[in-house]
Amino acid sequence: CSYDATCDPDDDDDGVADGVDNCPDVPNADQANADGDAEGNACDSDDDNDGVPDTNDMAPLNPRICEDSDSDTCDDCSKNPTSSASATPWPVYVPDPYNDGVDIDSDGLCTAGDPDNDNDGILDGPDTSNDDPDICGDSDFDTCDDCSIGTDNYGPMSDSTPNNDGADFDGDGLCDAGDNDDDNDGYTDDVDCNDLDENINPGTAEVCGDGVDNDCSGAIDDLDFDQDGHLDLACGGDDCNDGDDSIYPGAAEVCNNEDDDCDAGTADGSGETWYMQVTTCGNGACAAAGNFICQSGVKTDTCSAGTGAADDATCDGVDDDCDGSTDEDYVSDTSCFLLGACAASNAGSTCDAGVETVCQTGTPVAETCDNVDNNCDGTTDEGLTQPTSCGVGVCSGNAGQETCAAGVWGGDTCDPFAGSSAETCDNADNDCDGTVDEGLTQATANQDGLCSGNTETCAAGSYIPDGSNYVPVAETCDNADNDCDGTVDEGLTQPTSCGVGVCSGNAGIETCAAGVWGGDTCDPFAGSSSEVCEGSIDEDCDGTVDNGCNGECVYLETQACGSDIGVCQKGTQTCNEFGIWGTCVDEVVPSAELCDGLDNDCDSSTDEDFGNLGNSCSDGVGECYAAGNYVCTSNQLGTECNAVAGTPGTEVCDGLDNDCDGTSDEDYANLGNSCSAGVGECEVAGSYVCTGDNQGTECNAVPGTPGTEVCDNKDNDCDGSIDEGLFQPTTCGVGICASNSGQETCSAGVWSGDTCDAFAG
After folding, report:
1. With contact defined as beta carbons under 8 Å apart, do 720 and 732 qualify?
2. Mean pLDDT over the full length of the chain
3. What does the pLDDT average to over 268-276?
4. Are strands 516-518 and 506-513 parallel, antiparallel or unpaired?
5. Coil, helix or strand for 285?
6. Angstrom distance (rounded) from CA 63 to CA 55
7. Among candidates 490, 448, 443, 445, which has minimal Cα distance to 472?
8. For the residues 28-56, what does the mean pLDDT come to?
9. CA end-to-end span of the chain
């Protein structure tokens, strides 16, 4: 199973379904839950919900008892601020003070709730000392308990110490039996020769003549208490102070307002030169000299230090403010600091042993295009331009300039097409595209007949007919203008012969029209005569000798003869005296078919020899194009297109072939070429299109809107410079130098050149 809960409804197999089990992953069939929260005891880390994990809780199921941090069996939750429960509010229960604090007698009852804290058998109320098992009851109220001599019994923890039993002579709270200084004179019984008299002890001056060893020296009325070799005055000696071994006759007098030499005076050298000492005071500029003099036992220094300056900022090797340090307030001068390339050499002035070095920085140089602030003015590559040239052909040598930005020359203003024009056939690169006379093709002057569509291409300044063009040849009878003179099958004739009988060998001429020979002028009957019945000659040229000699007609009888189809008209034949039909007279005979709308050859078809008659045709190209139809020529021998081409105009930029040379807008070489407008982030790509007045081209790109310059290595404000003039304040330093300020400059999208001096000040 990929998901346990889907497959096993009781993950811990305790008989309680996961959906209602308060510990679904820990077996707990009894579902015990001491604190009534969402987790059973088996998986609850704080069963009594008192804020102390069970592992630290003295009583994990009792919310009144939490944690025993000092291991004295009493929990410390109410009193110990380090308890883990101290930061967690008690959820329901009020803390029980009987379970807080310490257990002095370790009887399992905490002191706050123990009626006999020291477990000495005397309850805390009557007990002289509730927390000391050796002190129980004071029946006579002398601060000494009377447990060993009275009726009170010692508790199980007492040791029956007699120090706390009996009387207290000196009332110091210590019973005499256990008091090592019964008279409380500061001297213990083992050195005090009379511990019941506080006036007799080793520290008391001997009183001569009282018969008592007052100083516990072991001798009564001894004469030299301070053991300075001079007897006490009271005992007949000359020691004016037998309690001070530094005072005796002949001792050196010192400035203490005491009679050190026991001469009955305290002369201590006041004003005497033998006591004066030279003194010094003050630091640095405040230093002064004086003397120690003694006045009324007080040694006084006459030295008075001068008043120091407010600070020690002057580099002079002198402690001007008299604080024991020299020149410590000196502030380094950074006023000379420069930016850019000079920043690396920036060094503030220094003060060393009173000698000041001046502020130093690098030396600015002329700005160069290297993405470095060479002239140290805070701007990189500013104002750097250089001339450029561009163009080929007639545009060669066009001038412009480019600008430096981020160490790179760019934004070249040189227009390689300035001065360009439409390419013309002159062996020059007029459109400045690097190729001479390219793409110049025009129709040849002769566009008649089969030469229609012939073109010529410019090469080296001259138009040369294309090799695939039709070359005029002699006209042939094929309904085509073979010699390209504008006329089809013109002037084409050929001799013919006809006739039989005496007419045999008659000569004529036929003419070509629309590719068909016709209009034969040969007369098959020229020279014919009436048939003579002599038996051998066909005089009437009808192909039959002596026809009619058998009397085919009646003399002077007439009949129609010939054809009346088309332009032909029948004639009349008259029967001669020989009974033979005579010559057909007044007959209109067939002739060569002409292009005239008539059936000249009397074959029931009109102009059938001119196959393209009426077909569509055209003349001219571009705006000169005209449509028409093939019509008969004026000499009726052929056909011609009646379309008349328009007059060529001046080429303008409008997508049309205005000058009718077969090419549109050829005078605008950059039409359709890529272009752009704007610089930096405002640069937008476009292409050259015709201007509104159709007289030239223009780039259809519209530059974007300049933004605010930011530090990203881009020309956001579209002025041709990248990240120019961008500064931001900086802070640095620690201690008294904290919050020192400076600035850093943006270059190539990176903030750098921080001028903040962390040690200035």
Report:
1. no
2. 81
3. 48
4. antiparallel
5. helix
6. 14
7. 448
8. 82
9. 72
Provide the 8-state DSSP code for 664: S
% of the chain beyond a pLDDT of 70: 80
Within 8 A by CB and 6+ apart from 418, the residues are: 391, 395, 398
Block residue for tokens 């000079």: 342
Q: What is the pLDDT of residue 90?
A: 42
49 to 21, 38, 44, 52, 427: CA distances (angstroms): 19, 11, 9, 7, 104
Which of 589, 528, 581 has the alpha carbon at shortest distance from 557? Answer: 581
Collect all residues with Cβ–Cβ distance below 8 Å to 22 and sequence separation of at least 6: 28, 31, 33, 38, 39, 40, 43
pLDDT at 120 over 80: no
> Which H or E run contains 400?
strand 398-405
Query: Alpha-carbon distance 319 to 264, whole Å?
Result: 50
H helix or E strand, kind and range, residue 197: none
Cα–Cα dist 411/722, whole Å: 11
Helices (H), ranges, 615-659: none
Three-state SS at 178: helix
**For 439-477, what is each residue's pLDDT tens digit?**
888 888 888 888 888 889 999 999 898 888 888 999 999
The answer to whether residue 326 scores a pLDDT higher than 50 is yes
Three-state SS for 409?
A: strand
Which run of H or of E encompasses 493? strand 493-498
**Statement: residue 188 has pLDDT above 50:** yes
Query: How many angstroms separate the CA atoms of 515 and 482, rounded?
Result: 11
Between CA 186 and CA 57 the distance in angstroms is 51
- 441 and 456 in contact (C-beta within 8 Å)? yes
What pLDDT is recorded for position 351? 92
1 — pLDDT class (breaks 50, 70, 90): very low
Long-range contacts of 199-208 (CB under 8 A, 24+ apart): 205/232, 205/242, 205/243, 206/232, 206/234, 206/235, 206/242, 207/234, 208/232, 208/234, 208/235, 208/236
β-pair partners for 559: 573
Token couple for 336: 């000379």
Residue type, 723: D
pLDDT in tens, 590-605: 888 899 999 998 889 9
- Diameter of the chain measured on Cα atoms: 236
pLDDT tens digits, 227-251: 888 887 777 778 888 788 888 888 8
Please state, in angstroms and rounded to a whole number, the distance separating the CA atoms of residues 313 and 425.
86
pLDDT for res 58: 72
The residues with which 493 forms a beta bridge, in sequence order, are 511
The residues facing 129 across adjacent strands are none
Nearest to 346 by CA among 329, 332, 366, 367: 332
Percentage above 90 pLDDT, the chain: 26
DSSP string, 422-450: ---SSSS-TT-SS-SSTT-EEE-S--SGG
Query: What DSSP line would sit under 51-77, residue for residue?
Result: SS-TTTBSSTT-TT--B-TTSSSSB-T
Residue with the bigger pLDDT between 186 and 716: it is 716
